[in-house]
Structures are given as structure tokens and as C-alpha cells.
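Batch job 17 of 40 flagged for manual review because the log was empty.
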Amino acid sequence: MSERNERVSAISLDQIIANYGIAGLFVGAGIEGETVVVLGGMMVHRGTLAFLPAIAAASAGSFVVDQLFFQLGRRFRTHSFVQKMQSRAAFAKALSAFDKHPVLFVFVFRFLYGLRTVSPLAIGTTSLPARTFLTINALAAVVWGTLFISVGYCFGTAIEAAFGRLRSAEHLVFAAIGVATIVALTVILLKRRRA
């Protein structure tokens, strides 16, 4: 029994990330966004993840979540939650930008700070065909995933130097958790302040 425990504890976090990192990158790209994807690019730089699968996971995570929000906006446009969201300034700003340049806005909203989360929901309430959104969303997600994985990959050394030498994957995981926690707390505080 103790020999088994020693073998289990001997498995390094690097091996766990190498085995499950793509799934974590998929979820993180959808929930948090750029920060997790740049960290994924840094893991590619370190050799923990492969470049193309990391791009695929980041792109797919972003695509799936945006597709889900679009479908929620489309299906529940008369629901109280969506109507409550429509009263927010970001929702109105997203619709205004969409009305001016529908195709361009669907492509670029994920790059616009403050509009990323609300935009697919807002677009879902419009008459844009679902197939059109799906096509543009897929293309934009691939560009987005490729860009931010590449940033982490190309500037991994500079990022590590800026934040101190990160010698093991444990530091990357703790850094990602720390950044995600700070972002979540900031969002919660901003929402409470607005209310």
C-alpha cells in the first residue's frame, strides 16, 4: 500500500498537466479567456503542451461558450434574465456596434474588453441567422486561439522573466489560479458597485 502511495505521489504535476492540460485549457478559454490561453501558450513554450492541440483547445473552448450564449439569447430573448441584461449599458453598446457592422462585430467582439461576455447573448436576440453566427464565430475563435497561444509561446521567456523564473508547472497552475481569482473578485466587486 505504501509503495503504491509513493508511486502516486511520484507522479509530477508536469505529467498531470501534460495528460489533462488540454482539457483545462478548453475549459479555461471558455470561462476566463485570454489569461488562461496565454498561460497555455507559455506551457507550449515550455514543452508541456503541443502547439496545435493547444490552439484547438483554446479555440474550441471560446467557440463553445460563445455559441452557448448566442443560443441562450436566441431561445430565451423574452425571459426575464435576458431582458434584465438588455438594460445594461454593455448590452446596448454591443447591439449598437452590431447594427453598424454585423459581420465585422461578430468577428471582433471576443477581442473587445467589456463586450466579450455579453455580445453573443445580445447577438442572439437579433435576427442574424444562427448558421451565419456559427460560421463567423468558428473562424473568429480559431484566429483568437491562435493569436493568444502564440503570444504565450513567443513571449513565454519574457513573461517568465517579468514574473520571476517559473521553474515548474506548479507555479504556472498557481499563477493561473491567482489570476483567475483576482479577475473573479474584480468582476464581483464591480457588479456590486454598479448595483
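Reviewer: the log was empty due to a logging misconfiguration, but the result itself is present. The CA atoms of residues 165 and 174 lie 14 Å apart. Unflagging and moving on to job 18.
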